[in-house]
Design goal:
- The protein is of the alpha/beta class and about 425 residues long.
- It is about 45% helix and about 20% strand.
- A 7-stranded parallel sheet has the order 10-9-11-8-7-12-13, sandwiched between helices.
- Strand 4, helix 7 and strand 5 form a beta-alpha-beta unit.
- The protein is globular, with a radius of gyration of 25 Å.
Length: about 425
């Protein structure tokens, strides 16, 4: 690299560093304004953004067309292009999502557990915003509106860094967001969408520990691993969705078949899709042949332990021998690992060894076993007689979610409005002094 080129690169890097530092400072200032905004003001902004998105549908589609053309020219595959596309239906869904967030209860300022202490003071806890949230995501431009809406309603400023493939779409949505914030009298810096596609901007965002309180990545495993390893700011994330269903000795046969089939086949590419099916040895011969045939008919490849293969060979159902790696693989595809275990203790041991601590379910009519499973399985969602596909913020009654966390601090499971807040202790006295 010659001296002029080296100087140009250094100048560019310094520009990005300065841009991101300025963005962080602006977000911190804006967080104070949104943190004290009333529920009515926040809802006014959300509804105004929704109206802007609806009225600017053609502008959004034109910007999206530029991204789609660039994506095709770069050879993006059909699945990525599909996630990138903004159709009329998806634009309407963005607007409706914002209206739904406006209708949700505001968590900010809620006081809980207020009680008198022996000294006479009252002690409780109040919900407060986290402050400034950085969100790094890929492909789907609708995340720009969804994430902005959730952060706004929970009283947080947000810095959004979408994928370079969606730059035109994201900036068009950002314009709608700025228009809505202005109508509600809120600073434009409450929601900032990074304007550069330079990868260095991500690295700078991960180092803004003076300005950013938490980072939330949404995307593939590679993106999340990079952010987790590089970030100097706390991260809310999950890496894998290696989810299990265990069919117990005391399972209802029809429930077991229905739930286990749905958990795998309702959608293949989601983090809450079952990747490993465990069956108690005593019921495996009764349940496996019918269930496995349903999987095969649906186009699912079965990777099975030796006991499973032995049972299914007699039913003329082809399987692939599972290897050690299969038990810890998130397929996100029509592929399923199946293992027969002696009973519930072995099932729990297998899950706690190989699970990504996302979602696990037991199928049983035995109350004692269901309680044992709920207590001993160490995952962010644990279910009884229900499909793992229910592990979703909307299905949990949160209204919407920013993502799912398999961490134990600060949030765990689907992260909705409450997960984007923290709590502080409040003390009410009347001239009380400590003796």
């Amino acid at each position: 690299m010659n001296a002029n080129m080296k100087s140009g690169v250094q100048s560019s890097m310094q520009d990005i560093k300065s841009y991101m530092a300025s963005t962080g400072r602006a977000a911190r200032d804006a967080s104070r304004a949104i943190g004290k905004a009333s529920t009515g003001q926040k809802n006014e902004a959300l509804l105004a953004i929704a109206a802007a998105i609806g009225s600017q549908a053609e502008v959004l589609k034109n910007a999206n067309a530029l991204d789609l053309k660039a994506g095709k020219d770069k050879g993006l595959d059909a699945a990525l292009l599909d996630r990138l596309e903004l159709t009329d239906e998806r634009i309407n869904a963005m607007a409706e999502g914002l209206r739904q967030i406006a209708a949700l209860p505001d968590p900010v300022g809620i006081i809980s557990d207020l009680a008198y202490q022996p000294s006479g003071i009252q002690v409780g806890r109040m919900r407060v915003p986290l402050g400034v949230i950085g969100i790094i995501y890929e492909s789907r431009p609708n995340v720009t509106a969804d994430a902005a809406g959730l952060c706004l309603k929970s009283g947080n400023a947000v810095i959004l860094r979408g994928g370079s493939e969606a730059i035109n779409s994201n900036q068009a949505i950002a314009k709608c967001i700025r228009d809505g914030l202005a109508i509600a009298g809120l600073p434009a810096e409450v929601v900032q969408v990074i304007e550069t596609t330079e990868r260095a901007a991500v690295g700078e965002l991960l180092r803004l520990k003076e300005s950013v309180d938490v980072i939330i990545p949404r995307g593939g495993k590679g993106l999340i691993e990079r952010i987790t390893s590089e970030s100097e700011v706390p991260v809310i994330k999950h890496l894998d969705g290696i989810c299990h269903v265990y069919i117990d000795d005391d399972a209802d046969r029809d429930k077991a078949i229905k739930v286990a089939f749905n958990a795998k086949t309702q959608r293949y590419g989601t983090c809450n899709t079952m990747e490993t099916l465990l069956l108690a040895e005593s019921v495996s011969a009764e349940i496996l042949p019918e269930l496995a045939k349903m999987y095969i008919d649906a186009g699912v490849e079965i990777r099975a332990c030796e006991s499973t293969r032995s049972i299914l060979t007699g039913s003329n159902i082809e399987t692939v021998a599972a290897n050690e790696a299969d038990w810890s693989t998130e397929y996100l595809a029509p592929v399923l690992s199946i293992k027969i275990v002696p009973g519930i203790d072995a099932a729990i041991s297998h899950i706690n060894k190989y699970s990504s601590q996302h979602t696990e379910s037991i199928i049983t009519e035995n109350y004692t076993k269901s309680r044992q499973f709920l207590r001993e399985v160490d995952s962010s969602s644990v279910m009884v007689n229900a499909s793992t596909r229910f592990a979703d913020g909307f299905e949990y009654g949160l209204g919407a979610e920013i993502g799912i966390s398999t961490d134990k601090l600060h949030a765990r499971g689907p992260v909705g409005l409450e997960g984007l807040t923290s709590q502080k202790y409040i003390v009410l006295g009347d001239g009380h002094i400590r003796q």
